[in-house]
Amino acid sequence: MPGSEGYCNIPNPDIPGKNKTEKDVISNMQFTARMKPPSQFKHDGTMGIDIDELKEIISNDPSPEPPNDRRYKPACVFLLIFYLEEPYILAIQKADSEGYPWRNQVALPGGHLDAEDASPLAGAFRELEEEMSISRDQVEFLGSMGHFQTINNRDIEVFIGLWRAAEPVRHDPAEISRILKIPIRVLVQTHNTQNFHGRIPDIDELRYPFEDVVIWGATARILHHFIELFHPQFETSGWARVLASKLSG
After folding, report:
1. Domain count, the chain
2. How far apart are CA 21 and CA 10, in angstroms?
3. What pLDDT, on the 0 to 100 scale, is given for residue 83?
């Protein structure tokens, strides 16, 4: 999507010629699956948590506010949760294009807002369909996780949703090299073993490795906030069981 590169990670230090210049700028910033119909997203006492509770956690979170600075252009992404044999999030790896500043970077699906978008949420849904062929009716919207800024003056609003999909994701290889299905368990394990819980790590420290990539920069800060938000749930077996119940079958 033209312009969508604005929300991606900062340049990767593992790519020759790319410098880390964002440290001072951001130091103070804070499933293919099948889901049941929305009517079945009800409380199940044996699971310890329900979908309404997830929405309440997001709603009650003192989310990062948008910057009071006109230099920042609005952008939006979706953090989509889905279920295979365990809970996952959906991410993308940007295209491996020579000269592309965000070459091979890991990001969440989304992009910039267009003038015709009725709201940031509407823009996020539009980007999902244009970029990933994921329609609005495949996503159960949970809420907004707040705003995260990048060094190239983008203000990203992050929306969380549960993804109900029966078809493979389709994407434009000119913009996206591949789709990443990342187990939440893997991210939480890194979060805990690196002692990220309860603090905001320095940009040089905040990394989430997954297979052959390292998630860092803007996407890492978003994931850090997401894991902190639901950390008590991630530490219980009820979290995985409720998603297994609600997103599979």
Report:
1. 1
2. 9
3. 84
